[in-house]
Amino acid sequence: MSCAPFVSSPHDVVRKMLEVAKASKDDVLVDLGCGDGRILSTAVKDFGVKAAFGYEIREDLFKTA
After folding, report:
1. I need a labelling partner for 45 at 20 to 30 A (CA). Which of 4, 27, 37, 39 fits?
2. What is the β-pairing status of strands 51-55 and 28-32?
């Protein structure tokens, strides 16, 4: 089931979103409709967020994330 097609965000856009959000080691990130999980993984690896949780309705994307 899907309400809209999945279109991944380019890595530079993901980084900019996290910079604008001022993601840091004190944050817990929740991404509803996390797709392939690139925002979650970038937040943890590059911004050191405390924890990151993603929710995805599509099983194929969930497995990728």
Report:
1. 4
2. parallel
Please state, in angstroms and rounded to a whole number, the distance separating the CA atoms of residues 11 and 39.
Answer: 9
User: How far is Cα 46 from Cα 15, in angstroms, rounded to an integer?
Assistant: 9
Q: Do residues 54 and 29 make contact, with C-beta atoms less than 8 angstroms apart?
A: no
The domain locations on the chain are 24-64
Q: What is the pLDDT of residues 33-64, one digit of tens each?
A: 999 999 999 999 999 999 999 999 888 888 88
Dist. CA 14–CA 36, nearest whole Å:
12
Q: Where do we find the tokens 């979650």?
A: 40
